[in-house]
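Q: What residues go here?
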């Protein structure tokens, strides 16, 4: 599984899955809200399909909530995942890992899939980029091993693109450490 930190527009990223993080709130944070406004049906409406889902209660942001929107028409990716992170004031690295694990286990069941993750700025602020990236790499590595709740074998993604963090030697090293910790955890289970 290859982890990258590309610069550029998330919406133009081709692939299988795009995962967006969302805290429990009445409106989306900027990383989703601005993108969703671009997808509004009419220029004057300024309410996109995700905001309509949020207002209808289909997206709550509760910890571990995984909302899958298949064939989202406005993105180059095939499927969109909104991952609930719970209340921002109760957010911790462990709660983040728990939610991410739930999402990955629901979608990592086919060969040659890619995953793009866009981070809410609060995730980076509260956890720190390097700590968040290390945990993401560890959790995604571990979560792609074994079987999901339906008994399907899980398969590692061919590529995981992490949007939001700045590419740096420190962040790249954090990802390598996370992958190594994930692999060690998998080996210890055998």
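A:
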């Amino acid at each position: 599984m290859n982890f990258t930190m590309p610069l550029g527009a998330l919406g133009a990223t081709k692939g299988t899955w795009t995962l967006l993080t969302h805290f429990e709130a009445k409106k989306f944070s900027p990383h989703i809200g601005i993108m969703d406004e671009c997808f509004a049906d009419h220029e004057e409406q300024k309410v996109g399909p995700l905001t309509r889902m949020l207002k209808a209660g289909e997206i709550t942001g509760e910890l571990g909530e995984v909302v899958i929107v298949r064939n989202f028409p406005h993105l180059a990716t095939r499927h969109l995942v909104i991952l609930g992170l719970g209340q921002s004031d109760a957010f911790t690295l462990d709660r983040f890992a728990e939610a991410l694990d739930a999402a990955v286990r629901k979608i990592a069941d086919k060969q040659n899939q890619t995953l793009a993750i866009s981070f809410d700025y609060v995730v980076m602020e509260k956890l720190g980029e390097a700590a968040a990236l290390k945990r993401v790499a560890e959790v995604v590595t571990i979560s792609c091993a074994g079987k999901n709740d339906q008994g399907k074998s899980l398969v590692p993604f061919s590529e995981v693109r992490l949007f939001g963090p700045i590419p740096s030697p420190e962040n790249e090293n954090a990802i390598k450490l996370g992958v190594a910790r994930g692999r060690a955890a998998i080996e210890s289970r055998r």
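A: Context that may help when evaluating the design: The first strand starts at residue 2 and ends at 4. The chain has a mean pLDDT of 85.
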